[in-house]
What we know:
This protein has 264 residues and is of the alpha+beta class. It is built from 6 helices and 13 strands. The strands form 2 sheets. Strands 1, 2, 4, 5, 6, 7, 8, 9, 12 and 13 form a 10-stranded antiparallel sheet that branches.
Amino acid sequence: MLIKNASQLLSMRRVGEVAAGVLAEALIHARVGATTRDVDEAVAAALEGRGARSAPRLVYGFPGSICISVNNEAAHGPPGPRRFSAGDLVNLDLAVELDGYYADCALSFALEPAGEAELRIAAAARDILHLALEKIRPGMRAGKVGGFIEKEAAARGFAVLRDLGGHGVGRAPHEAPEHLECYDNAENPTLFEEGRVVAVELFLSTLDGHCAVAEDGWTLATRPGNLVAQAEHTILVRRGPPEILTLAAAAGLRSAFAAAAEAE
């Protein structure tokens, strides 16, 4: 979406705030012993309470309100009876619709007691995303940012998934530009445009850079033994650093972990 007036900007800020807030609530419910359906039900209630809807369910008929992927699963995992176990690397990916506007955000985190590999890759995904966002400027080739992401991932011992990446967002969950890769694709001429809303997302992997659709028809999974961590924010490209419309999601991660610790 290309922001053209103050009303559109306000609407995008509202949906971004809702997405971040609901994701923070989801984090509280993703704990050892809970099921992925438990998290989904909490998300559905949180969305309804804010007058918002799940974008994947609304647009694509996804069987849930939030995508929940675990360990070697990269994305689009449907909720169900699966229970979280100690040490799981969990990815929560939430796309929200509010009054005809859409925002997208995601976080990966490890359930304690977690292994070093799970903790490192989740932290790396979040750190690299924020470093990459700081570099985005109008007129910059998207591949330059993708190349930075891949380089940073390699420096920390990880690969990037080349099958997945970011995209435009705003009046639909997926808009132009359709492909914002996590690597420098020389064949992609996309430039970041001032006023454009995009979802910048990256996927780090411990073994390799590819995934495939699982038997459930939704989950995008990598090979067994691999670990995948995602991080995503919806941003507004502008002069200077971009405005991160879902920025509260990062703060939500910290507050959610604090709330979970108090509950225990």
